[in-house]
């Protein structure tokens, strides 16, 4: 009965490849997020989806594209992977999408680009 | 936009001592200040939060204080235990914009 789950847990790939990370939440929350945590542990928001609509798109390269088939899922597709994309990617969700709610994080996907 | 500064970046304390982590924010409109704890290899988890209508909030050994005039807030952990060792993140939001996180503090509790 995991609340927020991500797959895969680890992803090792070559530069230039395209990869996807999947996220699912079973909390019935309306809003889901993608965060990037670099090697220095900085947590930075990338995207937010509320009821399948993009409501935040920080200055992220357009090689990154979020896809939400329904409000329980938010996937992240990355084209033409670069070395600098190596990081831990966290999915999160919150109940309504207000910026003053608890965010529930997934376990993270550790991406290593070689 | 909001900018959150967090200090110190690393902190070592003896078991049983207190630990204090401080954050400052730039946007006076911010009114929600959560703290997240991230254990090694794990996900961040909310441990406590405070809103601008209160100056202090406690939950067992953890407390958070807020000084709106000075635009800073602090996390206090008393009687530290080895399981308190983790990276702690502060964050701020005005409700209309997403949470902005500090850069984290790595707390080590030495037994």
Description of the molecule:
The complex is a heterodimer of chains A (114) and B (111). Chain A has strands spanning 4-7, 10-13, 19-25, 31-37, 43-50, 53-57, 64-70, 73-78, 87-94, 104-105, 109-113. Chain A has 114 residues and is mainly beta. In chain A, strands 2, 4, 5, 6, 9, 10 and 11 form a seven-stranded mixed β-sheet that branches. With 111 residues, chain B is mainly β. Chain B is built from no helices and eleven strands. The chains are: A mainly beta (114), B mainly beta (111). The interface between A and B is medium-sized, with 19 and 24 residues.
Gross morphology of chain B:
globular
Helix-strand category of chain A: mainly beta
Q: What is the number of beta strands of chain A?
A: 11
The biggest beta sheet of chain A reads: 7 strands, mixed
Oligomerization category of the chains in this entry: heterodimer
Mean pLDDT of chain B: 95
In N-to-C order, the SSE pattern of chain A is EEEEEEEEEEE
Largest interface by residue count?
A-B, 19 and 24 residues
Short description:
Chain A has 114 residues and is mainly beta. Chain A has strands at residues 4-7, 10-13, 19-25, 31-37, 43-50, 53-57, 64-70, 73-78, 87-94, 104-105, 109-113.
Protein traits:
heterodimer, A: 114 residues, mainly beta, seven-stranded mixed beta sheet, four-stranded antiparallel beta sheet, 11 strands, B: 111 residues, six-stranded mixed beta sheet, five-stranded antiparallel beta sheet
